[in-house]
Amino acid sequence: MSNTRKLWLGLAALLIVSFGVLLWAGTEIFRAAPPVPERVVSESGQVIYTRADIERGRQVWQSMGGMQLGSIWGHGAYVAPDWSADWLHREATNVLDLWARADDAMATYAQLPAERKAALQGRLQEMMRRNTYDAATGTITLDADRVVALSNVAAHYESLFGNDPATQSLREAYAMKNDTVPDVDNRRALTAFFWWTAWAATTERPREPGDAMVPTQSGVVDQQVTYTNNWPSEPLVGNRPAAPLWLWSAFSVLFLIAGIALLGWHHARTHDEAPAQLPKTDPLAMLRITPSMRATAKYFWVVLALFLVQILLGAMTAHYQVEGQVAYGFNLSNVLPYSITRTWHTQLAVLWIAVAWLGTGLYIAPALSGHEPKFQRLGVNFLWVCLLVIVVGSFAGQWMAVMQKMGLDLNFWFGHQGWEYADMGRFWQWFLFIGLLLWLTLVGRALWPVLRGPQSDTKAIVGLLFLSTVCIGLFFGAALMWGEHTHISEVEYWRWWLVHLWVEGFFEVFAAAVMSLIFVKLGLVNTKTATTAVLFATIVFMAGGVLGTLHHLYFVGTPTAVVALGASFSALEVVPLAYIGFEAYHTYKLGKATPWMTRYRWPILFFIAVSFWNLVGAGLFGFLINPPLSLYYMQGLNLTPLHGHTALFGVYGMLGIALVLFCLRGLRGQMQWDTKALKVAFWCFNIGLGMMAAFTLLPLGTMQLLAAIEHGYAYARSAEFMQKPIVDMLVWMRVPGDTVFSVGALALCWFVFRLWVAPRRLPVEGGAGELER
């Protein structure tokens, strides 16, 4: 059996087992999810909330932007508080103040001596952690004192999400527009949803076999974890890291070290085989550009337009953190509130990168096969129009939803779903899914002559490219797996299939296959070597990548088994990144292999940048927050976007730009490339991203982490903390990095613009086709 065949069988077995375990974990998550009660009542029988109130409240929360305005269970935006943690802290404080006035004649709990505080905390924890949910009747029963505290917190939220002058300063601190939820009944329903998320975070779930991993100590009552595994950190109610979080965090480090050792052993015993003779000229220089390949140019123009708009919206979103409802004196919140600018910013980050890769797929398929199917150009143009309609339509619906101009009945289908990175309405998700199936069809029919033809050296890599294309098209279907009233724990499970597996998984395989095929076509790498390398890299990546999805789900109502699996396999995600330097060096050598490779110098350099940010952004900053104990304190703090920005743009954005430049070499290769602008773009992107991370996200996230450990999560996300002068200064420190980064984006656009508007043809005798000035 050939080595390639063994790798194919190994990959198939790995994916079958991994997805089998991932699906099993999903059934456990669905089973252990915190219950949504039919009624919430007081001890006297008074109905406080109903299931209908909670579900309607979630609809209201989604319509106003959902995770794009504050967060729930740590998932979402970073300026406004985490509503689950904020409600929990406010409710606990209200109860303690109530008891301090009734029992000790003190105005507030904070005025009590230490021993009384400790006594009341013990009493509070017993009351709030006790699970009073009756599964037979679907009823949660609350103590009278807790009902009073609940009503006080609800009144605060009804004021905050309205237009009450009493909470105006908080709205400004949270970057909320006035009358975020103008309807009074909707505001009351919103409080029901927020209360339920806080209830799940502080209520102990029923003990199950395997929950207790240590023998019970005589005379000591075991403390069971809450539905959210004791998240968030809240000293008042006894929320602290559970024992399994410590255990599996330690094991994740061991798995990481073992994985790196095994990969090091493999690397030491294998060597790349150089081709017998390098081509004297560029094999792709005379590539025949088909009509459909030429039609992909408009995709790359859209990429640049979406990229520029995303940067502008990112600057506006960051500035809201400083001035609240205004930007440089202009009251933008009445037109483009924070929740909509952040929605569009995060969504465009995925969209422009995805369009870059979609365009690359449509370009590379006919280039590999030499086959132009009938009506291929029409399909490419039609898909481009569909993508524009989806972007404009979904963004318009989200704006109308956030501005409360769309009723709740239409919001799920045409407005704002409220789930970060999966915000567009269900109609637009279906439209995009069908568009991806069309893309899959277009790429597949162009590759078909290679796939069905006789055995060839490149057939295995082309097959992997096609399979990744199939997965990109089909796995977006994970966004269609939940409904309007699906339990939030189940939604989170499927949402991370979309964000983690679709964006971080199969796009990675697609990119690796495309880059390998490019180097093979250039004659720089043996086909056999490239095939083995791509298959092995896919196996290594997927070994941790599939089950590593679970590290996003530690605190959304999941059992301990999910924590164990997520911690173990998310550590393995970092293993291939540990040797990313070898990949970068190998790529650099290919870029210097022959004189004519100077034509591909800048695409190669962008690919080397991908390797660097893979190691730093995805590797170092990713593992920083992946272990359960780390994420317990860091989730939803600025250390999360530190990983997000450096990994999403540093890896996938840089890779998208590299692929676009490779395609432009074919589309405009007969023109001289004045690469001064590319040089500016390359260094501005890397320096600007580094400044953004070092000057703002890393120091601010570290300060929040210390605050969360010492004072609890609610304080680290509170207006009191986030409005401190040093925080304002750190936010302003983003301006230099953002400015440098923006110059890079403008330079890239100027380079592409000149290729079409003011091109200079190469001399007849040829040449490098690249000028450095």
From TrEMBL:
<feature type="transmembrane region" description="Helical">
    <location>
        <begin position="561"/>
        <end position="582"/>
    </location>
</feature>
<dbReference type="InterPro" id="IPR000883">
    <property type="entry name" value="Cyt_C_Oxase_1"/>
</dbReference>
<dbReference type="Pfam" id="PF00115">
    <property type="entry name" value="COX1"/>
</dbReference>
<feature type="transmembrane region" description="Helical">
    <location>
        <begin position="494"/>
        <end position="520"/>
    </location>
</feature>
<feature type="transmembrane region" description="Helical">
    <location>
        <begin position="380"/>
        <end position="401"/>
    </location>
</feature>
<keyword id="KW-0812">Transmembrane</keyword>
<feature type="transmembrane region" description="Helical">
    <location>
        <begin position="460"/>
        <end position="482"/>
    </location>
</feature>
<feature type="domain" description="Nitric oxide reductase subunit B cytochrome c-like">
    <location>
        <begin position="37"/>
        <end position="232"/>
    </location>
</feature>
<dbReference type="Pfam" id="PF22085">
    <property type="entry name" value="NorB_cytochrome_c-like"/>
</dbReference>
<protein>
    <submittedName>
        <fullName>Nitric-oxide reductase large subunit</fullName>
    </submittedName>
</protein>
<keyword id="KW-0472">Membrane</keyword>
<feature type="transmembrane region" description="Helical">
    <location>
        <begin position="680"/>
        <end position="698"/>
    </location>
</feature>
<feature type="transmembrane region" description="Helical">
    <location>
        <begin position="645"/>
        <end position="668"/>
    </location>
</feature>
<keyword id="KW-1133">Transmembrane helix</keyword>
<feature type="transmembrane region" description="Helical">
    <location>
        <begin position="427"/>
        <end position="448"/>
    </location>
</feature>
<feature type="transmembrane region" description="Helical">
    <location>
        <begin position="299"/>
        <end position="322"/>
    </location>
</feature>
<dbReference type="InterPro" id="IPR054309">
    <property type="entry name" value="NorB_cytochrome_c-like"/>
</dbReference>
<feature type="transmembrane region" description="Helical">
    <location>
        <begin position="245"/>
        <end position="265"/>
    </location>
</feature>
<dbReference type="InterPro" id="IPR036927">
    <property type="entry name" value="Cyt_c_oxase-like_su1_sf"/>
</dbReference>
<feature type="transmembrane region" description="Helical">
    <location>
        <begin position="349"/>
        <end position="368"/>
    </location>
</feature>
<feature type="transmembrane region" description="Helical">
    <location>
        <begin position="532"/>
        <end position="555"/>
    </location>
</feature>
<feature type="transmembrane region" description="Helical">
    <location>
        <begin position="602"/>
        <end position="625"/>
    </location>
</feature>
<feature type="transmembrane region" description="Helical">
    <location>
        <begin position="739"/>
        <end position="757"/>
    </location>
</feature>
